[in-house]
Design a protein that fits this description.
By secondary structure, this protein is of the alpha+beta class. The protein has helices at residues 21-28, 35-44, 76-80, and strands spanning 9-11, 31-33. The protein is elongated and about 65 Å long.
Length: 94
């Protein structure tokens, strides 16, 4: 690290090095990737996320749209800083 101060992460390419990844993280404070974290990253990219995605979460929806105006969830100070100011909601179609 003294020779390469711009170093931001470490990649352990050898499959015998993952047991040392935590020690490297602790000693350097850098992100460390190894064969296991790389495989986890790759596998998890193909898995369904339980919070959204392919797991039919929308089946629990009651089919009722809640009224929402852009920015209504913001505090007043944040509303004043909006670039796109909210407009009055359009009347519901009959």
């Amino acid at each position: 690290l003294e020779e390469q101060p711009s170093l931001r992460a470490i990649l352990l390419e050898c499959t015998e090095l993952p047991p040392y990844a935590d020690a490297l993280r602790a000693a350097t404070g850098l992100c460390v990737w190894d064969a296991i974290t790389g495989a986890d990253f790759y596998i998890n990219a193909f898995k369904d996320n339980p919070r959204f995605g392919l797991n039919d979460w929308q089946n629990e929806w009651d089919n009722v749209h809640d009224d929402y105006t852009f920015g209504q969830n913001l505090i007043e100070a944040d509303k004043r800083e909006l670039v796109n100011k909210p407009t009055a909601p359009k009347p519901a179609a009959a």
